[in-house]
Amino acid sequence: MDRASLPVPATCWPSARHHSVPTATVSRSPSWCVGLAVCCATEGRPGLIGRAFCHGRGRNAAQGIQPATGDLVYDQFEDGVFRTELETRVAHLRPTELLRPPVLSRPTERFLAHWIAQCGDTGSSGDDGVRVERLKRDHPEYAKALVAVTEFLHQADKDASRLVADVSTLPRGVLAALASLLVYLREFGLERSLRLTSNFAPFASRRTIVLSANTLRNLELLQNDTDGQAYGSLLWVLDHTRTPMGKRLLRKWVAQPLRNREDVEARLDAVAELAQVSGAARLVAGPHGLPPHVV
């Protein structure tokens, strides 16, 4: 099969809609995950990183979870005074809810204020924008966080040695944020989503390219540069998905393209195989066909 005419994979079944000019405003894609996505952020303290913190640099950690599926993405990273690394992670995760510690450095406060103003702060309720929840206390120390998460995993499974081993390898900042996220999700009875440690994945991978927030914005990959809506973006053109899983996968492919040619070839071969076996070509090729590249 000619790869130039390959359809999207079976996990991204197309919807019945076609990308015609709408008569009403197209709503923005809600988040990194379809539905509720919670992002928890933490920041290194002055005692841990010394002068770097005072001059605006810091060691930050962020994680985003989709409680319905238990998919959790985490990262710990060094950031500069303009918080470009934090901006990149937020741009990829696009949370609908943000958990933040009570005290943050001035550069981080400035960035969050600017980002929330762009997205729209819903306060404690609302359908649009981002809901910001200020934690009552700072993230626990590493030792206390490890104990809290370990006890939670043992309550869920008496033989939780493998699960404990998974979380014990997480970076210190990520584990501290995970403990705070556990406390928060318990208030809504959603803490069970944290038991699936096999669904924990690092934000960055050696196989993919993490595009910066500026790149995503300037190339209009996930949203247009006019009003921040999905309409008119590259993702909007390619998105013929029918399932939330396919939508998340396609969004990840657009925002984090593969780095190696071998991986690209393997992905295209897999799509071609699915098309040949299941007859996906007849299902996904609408009246106008699809763009030649889906990766």
The level 1 CATH classification of the largest domain is: Alpha Beta
Order of helices and strands: EHHEEHEHEEHHHEHHHHH
CATH homologous superfamily designation of the largest domain: MutS, connector domain
Number of helices: 12
Query: Which class best fits the helix and strand makeup?
Result: alpha/beta
Record the strand order, biggest sheet: 5-6-4-1-2-3-7
CATH architecture descriptor name of the largest domain:
2-Layer Sandwich
* CATH topology-level fold name of the largest domain: Nucleotidyltransferase, domain 5
Strand content: 5-15%
First-residue to last-residue Cα separation? 17 Å
Radius of gyration: 20 Å
- Count up the domains: 2
Structure summary, number of beta strands: 7
Uncertain regions spanning at least 5 consecutive residues: 1-36, 45-55, 122-127, 290-295
Residue-averaged pLDDT: 75
Fraction of helical residues = 25-40%
Shape: globular
Please outline what is shown here.
With 295 residues, the chain is α/β, with parallel strands linked by helices.
Pick out its properties.
295 residues, alpha/beta, seven-stranded mixed sheet, 12 helices, 39% helix, disordered C terminus
Q: Can you offer a commentary on this structure?
A:
The protein is α/β, with parallel strands linked by helices. It has 2 domains: 3-29 and 222-284, no CATH class; 38-202, MutS, connector domain (Nucleotidyltransferase, domain 5, 2-Layer Sandwich). It is 39% helix and 13% strand. The protein contains 12 helices and 7 strands. The protein has helices at residues 46-49, 51-54, 84-93, 106-119, 142-156, 161-168, 172-186, 213-218, 234-238, 244-255, 261-278, 280-284; strands at residues 38-43, 58-66, 71-79, 97-100, 121-123, 130-134, 200-202. The protein has a 7-stranded mixed β-sheet with strand order 5-6-4-1-2-3-7, with helices on both faces. A hairpin with a 4-residue loop joins strand 2 and strand 3 (71-79). Helix 5 packs across helix 7. The protein is globular and about 50 Å long. The model is unreliable at 1-36, 45-55, 122-127 and 290-295 (pLDDT under 50).
